[in-house]
Design brief:
With about 180 residues, this protein is an alpha/beta fold. The chain has a single domain, classed as Lysozyme-like. It is about 35% helix and about 15% strand. The strands form 2 sheets. Strands 1-5-4-7-3-8 form a 6-stranded mixed beta sheet, sandwiched between helices. Strand 4 and strand 5 form a beta hairpin. The structure holds zinc ion. The site of zinc ion (ZN) has 4 residues, from loops.
Length: about 180
Amino acid sequence: MGAALVTASYGLIPGGRADARAQAVDYPSAEWQPASASNYTASNRPATYSVDHVVIHVTQETYTDTLAIFANPKKKVSAHYLVRSADGHVAQCVRDADIAWHAGNWGYNTRSIGIEHEGWVDQPSYFTDALYQQSARLTAAVCDRHGIPKDRAHIIGHYEVPGTDHTDPGPHWDWPRYMKLVRAA
Ligand SMILES: [Zn+2]
C-alpha cells in the first residue's frame, strides 16, 4: 500500500519529506502519487519477471482524474507513471518492482512498465513539447535501469499489445519524434 510505504519511510529516515519521497520513487524527479494496492499486483521484479517493454498510453482523462482513478480501489487499473500535459510533470503511482494493471494482458503487464500521458487520442494539442520531452527522459531512464533496448520492438503503444481493443496513444502520437527524443535523452 503506497501510503503505508511513505509513512514507513518517514519513520525510518530522519531527513523528512524529501528523503521519504526519494525512497518511494524509482525515477528521482517523479512525485509519488500512489495507486491503491487493490489496483496492482505486488511483486519483486526483476527477480520475479524480467522487465523488457515500455507501454505508452494516453489517459482519456485529466491528470487529476487519472490519479483519483488509480487511487480508487474499485477501479482495478493503474500504471507505473503518469505524465502531465501542460508541463511534463511526472507522477509515479506504482513501483517498478510491482505489476501495474495497464496493458489488459497479464503477460505484458508482468514484463512492462506502463506510462500514461494526460490527454485524448483525438486531441493532439495535449501532446505538448514538454510532455514529449519529459516522457522521453522518463522512458530513457526506465530503459537504462532495466536494460531495455530503445527501439519500437520494446517501446510500444497500448494498441500493439496482443488482444487489446485500445487505440492509444492514437494516430496523433509522433513516434519518430518520440523515439528520437528517447535515444537522445
Ligand atoms: Zn492504454
